[in-house]
Give the backbone structure.
Amino acid sequence: MATATAKLNADKTRALGAQRAEVSKLTTYDWVALDKRGKRMKGDMPAKNASLVKAELRRQGMNPQTVRERSKPLFGATGSTVKPGDVAVFSRQIATMMASGVPMVQSFDIIADGQKNVRFKNILLDVKQNIEGGAALHEALGRYPVQFDELYCNLVHAGETSGVLDTVLDTVATYKERTEAIKKKIKKALFYPMMVLAVVFMVCLIMLLFVVPVFAKTFQDAGAQLPAPTQILVNASEFMQSYWLVVIVVIGGSIAALVIAKKRSVKFAHFLDRMALKMPVMGNIVRNSAIARFARTLGVTFRAGVPLVEALDAVAGATGSVVYGDAVKQMRDDISVGHQLQLAMKQTNLFPNMVVQMTAIGEESGSLDNMLFKVAEFYEEEVSNAVDTLSTLLEPIIMVVLGTLVGGMVIALYLPIFKLAGTF
C-alpha cells in the first residue's frame, strides 16, 4: 500500500513537472481583435504559436486583427527579483479575495494576471498549479523559501489548520506592510547622506587626480615654496595618481570582507550588532526596530495559533538583529522548561521594563497578542520619530564635512598664490 502511494505521489510530481515545463515553453502574444459588435479589444495570451492564438480568439467569437509576439525588454526581463513589498501586496490581495469568497485557485489566477513582475507572476502560477495538484497552500509556498520564508509558511499552515486562513492572511498582510514601512523609512533617511558622501568622495577624487596636478605644475614652474597644507595635498595627489586603482580595490575589498565576515562568522556579526546598539541615535533606532519586529511577529504567530515555543523559533530570525535573535532563542529554551514569557524576557536584559510589564499583563489577562501589538505600535512610532531626528541631525553634519573637505582643499591650493602675491 505504501509503495502504491509513493508511486502515485511520484507520478503526480512528474505530471506537475511536465505541466510546468510545458507552460514555460509557451510564448506570450499580444493581440488586437474585433468583437461581434465591431468593438476593438486587446489583450495577451500564452501559446505555442500565433495561429493557435487566432484560433482561440475565433472560438471566443472575435475577429483577430493583429497577433504579435511580445517583445522582450531591452535590458532583460522586468521584475527579475521579487521584493518584500511585492509579497506584502500579494498577501493583502489574497486575503481580501478569500474573505470575499473567491476560490483560491481563481484568486491566484487573478493576482498573477495583474502582476507586472514577470518572475513573481511565474511563481504565483506555479503555486496555483501545485494547489490544483493537491498540495496545501503552505506546501506550495514553501517551494520558494526566498520569497516566502519559514515564518510566512508557518503562519499560513496555522491558518489552514485552524480554518481561519483568510483572517491569518489578513494579519500577515498587515505585518508585512508595517515591517516594510519601517524598513523603507530607515532606508529613505540614510539614502540622502550616503549619496552626499558618495558625491563628496567623487569630488575629492577628481580634484586629487585632475585639478591638484595642474596647480602643482604651476607652483613648480614658479619655484614657489609650498606651505605644509598644500604640500600634504600635493603628496596625496601624487599618491592617488600612482595607486588610485589600489585604493579603490582596497576600499571595495574591505567592504566586501566585512559583509562576508558578518554572514559567515556569528561572533563577528554579534560584535557588529553590539556596536550598532551602542551608537548614539542609530543605536536607539536599531534597538527599537528589533523590539517592534519581535513584538509584532510574536503577536501575529500567537494570534494565528502557533504554539509559543515554535513561534519563538520563527521570531528569532525576524528581529533583524543577531543580538536579539540570540536572546529570543534563550527565551525559547527558558519557556520550554516551564518559565513564563515575561520572566524569560527579563533574564535577557535587552527588553525595557515597559515591554516586560505589558507582556506580563497580557499573559495574566489572556490577551497576549493584543498587548504585543500595542508594544509593536509604540516602538514603531518611536522608530519613526528617531529616524526623523536622525535626518535632522545628519544634514548639518554632512554640510560641515562637505565644507571642511572641499573647502580645505581649495584653501590649501590657493595658499601659495596668496603667499606669492604677498611678496610683490
The mean pLDDT is 82.
